[in-house]
From TrEMBL:
<dbReference type="InterPro" id="IPR050317">
    <property type="entry name" value="Plant_Fungal_Acyltransferase"/>
</dbReference>
<dbReference type="InterPro" id="IPR023213">
    <property type="entry name" value="CAT-like_dom_sf"/>
</dbReference>
<keyword id="KW-0808">Transferase</keyword>
<protein>
    <submittedName>
        <fullName>Uncharacterized protein</fullName>
    </submittedName>
</protein>
<dbReference type="GO" id="GO:0016747">
    <property type="term" value="F:acyltransferase activity, transferring groups other than amino-acyl groups"/>
</dbReference>
<dbReference type="Pfam" id="PF02458">
    <property type="entry name" value="Transferase"/>
</dbReference>
Length: 458
């Protein structure tokens, strides 16, 4: 693919140069990459996109920085220079649509700038590299345009990414962005946990308790990708409500949410084809808060904060049969427990302390899931589709990086009618993506079909 690269700086790079370094806490020093794709049915204006990105970087200035290490203190930081910029690669391709069922599991270089796994930060490798990259590709066969964002986790989690992209979309449309990012997460020291409390908290951090050496993690990832198939399921908004009604008839914990119910539903379908009993769910919890809790000495990052405001939590073991209501109860019980400010402080403290272990990787990698566990990343409430760049209800979103038993729940993409060509949005619907061992796939589809029939019959 022939391409051209545009380097974009904030509109006032000299003002960015004077910004103080953003010191990174252990929970922010995560140098692996995520790749996100937005697909539009028409073209993007590249000069306009460059101008919009420059204005967006003026607010989200941490995305224009570079990683630095202070050798005297051993502290990592995001540093700024008026010469630093963000690249936008522009090109064309004649490949199938990135959204086509027989192609969208591939990470082709025409669509995506490959970013290597960097499980440990390296100032020589990362010090000169941008934290985000963008790629605009026009498909000459379909007329679609893809906008791919390579996002280094040092810039934050999926919520941070979505805020930046939504602001970029608004700037592109010459609409004033109302969201103003803050950076308090980076400037808050990670909490500390007393040693005697570690045995109580550690079982909630399965991926820390069972951390693996980097080489073993990479080998495990390669094996997983070669032995599994990508599963993609669409659950409409009506089906989500029906699943919730069906599951909550049997739950015992109050206020089980629709997300809890869908988590329980898919955990049960996966458990049905797992050779070992599925007993626990791991999930990603957002740790931002709208207000401080006066009786707690822990202050959660604000709702506007950039950074990695997330934590992987593991539920208690489900001792009953693998059933949607039992898994949903376990999810809601865990969420209620973790939302207590003191419990959350302890969890974040232990996670930070364990991330500093030499030679080990932390739970943030999420590369392996045992047969006895289902991992959930419920992103369905994060408004990725608002980054539509003017293609309202016609923009689709794609997330790379599914893993075995790792269930990503995303906002349902709009669909285009084959006969009439009209676009139909499905607000409240969920697109579910994960991977399963090849031999388990037929059994999973059979189980899912039977469960959906049970939901419909009720």
């Amino acid at each position: 693919m022939a391409s051209q690269i545009y380097w974009v700086k904030p509109t006032e790079p000299q003002s960015i140069r004077t910004k103080p370094d953003i010191s990174l806490q252990p929970s922010d020093l995560i140098p692996d990459w995520m790749d996100f794709v937005w697909v539009f049915p028409g073209a993007l204006d590249v000069p306009k996109l460059c101008d919009a990105l420059a204005r967006t970087l003026q607010d989200f200035y941490h995305a224009s920085g570079r990683l630095s290490l202070d050798d005297s203190t051993g502290r990592w930081a995001i540093s700024f220079s008026e010469n630093d910029g963000v690249p936008i690669t522009v090109g064309t391709t004649a490949l199938p649509s990135i959204m086509s069922a027989d192609f969208n599991h591939q990470k082709h270089s025409d669509y995506v700038n490959e970013h290597p796994y960097m499980l440990n930060p390296d100032p020589m490798a990362l010090g000169k590299q941008p934290f985000i990259t963008l790629k605009v590709v026009t498909n000459t066969s379909t007329g679609e345009t893809t906008l791919t964002l390579g996002w280094c986790h040092i810039c934050g989690d999926c919520a941070s990414m979505t805020h930046l992209m939504n602001s970029l979309s608004l700037c592109y449309q010459d609409i004033a962005a109302t969201f103003k990012p803050s950076f308090d997460k980076y400037h808050q020291s990670d909490p500390v946990l007393d040693e005697e409390l570690i045995p109580q908290v550690l079982p909630l951090l399965y991926y820390q308790e069972h951390a693996m050496e980097t080489s073993i993690v990479l080998k495990s990832l390669e094996t997983m990708l070669s032995t599994t198939s990508r599963i993609a399921v669409r659950i409409s908004a009506d089906q989500v409500r029906a699943i919730h009604a069906w599951v909550t008839k049997r739950t015992t914990v109050p206020r089980v949410s629709e997300t809890d119910a869908v988590v329980g539903f898919f955990s049960t379908a996966i458990a049905a084809v797992s050779p070992a009993p599925v007993r626990r769910i791991a999930y990603i919890l957002g740790t931002r808060s709208g207000r401080p809790v006066p009786e707690s000495d822990f202050t959660a990052p604000s709702l506007t904060s950039m950074g990695n405001c997330m934590q992987t939590i593991t539920t208690e073991e489900v001792t009953q049969d693998a059933a949607p209501w039992n898994f949903a109860d376990a999810m809601r019980t865990s969420m209620n427990y973790v939302r207590d400010p003191e419990n959350l402080r302890r969890i974040l403290a232990l996670n930070s302390q364990m991330l500093q272990r030499p030679g080990l990787v932390g739970d943030y990698l999420n590369l392996t899931s045992p047969d006895t566990m289902v991992y959930i990343n419920a992103l369905n409430k994060i408004p990725m589709l608002k980054a539509h760049f003017g293609y309202v209800d016609r923009t689709r979103f794609y997330l790379y990086g599914s893993s075995e038993h790792f269930v990503s729940m995303l906002p349902a993409n709009p669909t285009k009618g084959i006969s009439d060509g009209e676009w139909v949005a499905d607000a409240g619907g969920i697109d579910v993506v994960f991977r399963l061992k090849h031999a388990r796939v037929p059994g999973f589809w059979k189980e899912l079909d039977e469960m959906m029939q049970a939901v419909s019959s009720k």
